Amino acid sequence: MKMKVGELIELLDETIASVKIAIIANQNRVFESPHTSYEFAQRALELQEDLDDLMKVREMLAKLDPEDDAERHFSEEELGEFLKLLELLRKADAHAY
Q1: Which pLDDT value is given to residue 2?
Q2: Which of 65, 70, 75, 96 is the most buried (most CB within 10 A)?
Q3: CB within 8 Å of 52: residues ≥ 6 apart
């Protein structure tokens, strides 16, 4: 799997945007019903933690040359796991609201 650091940053940016939307959606749903407010508040907090982690990774990747092969900085296994995580976050967020 060949991937440039810049491509990885683009995927990361898409995921960050999805997580931000999901946080707002969950925060808005807190006020819908007293029966579900805790779950939505909890989900928003969990998503905020994920967002914080993604932003740290984004800062680290921004220091690298976007034209570098990502494989120069990460093992194939690390890269594969990270891409799976990004995909899960993007998909989960679509169903969160």
Answers
A1: 86
A2: 70
A3: none
**Tokens coding 21:** 């939307």
pTM score of the predicted model: 0.88
Q: How far apart are CA 91 and CA 95, in angstroms?
A: 7
The count of residues in the chain is: 97
Contact indicator for 39, 95 with CB cutoff of 8 Å: no
Which amino acid does the sequence have at 64? L
Q: In angstroms, how far apart are the furthest CA atoms of the chain?
A: 50
For residues 92 and 50, is the Cβ–Cβ distance under 8 A?
Answer: no
pLDDT one-digit tens code per residue, 37-79: 999 999 999 999 999 999 999 999 999 999 999 999 999 999 9
Of all residues in the chain, the percent with pLDDT exceeding 70 is 94
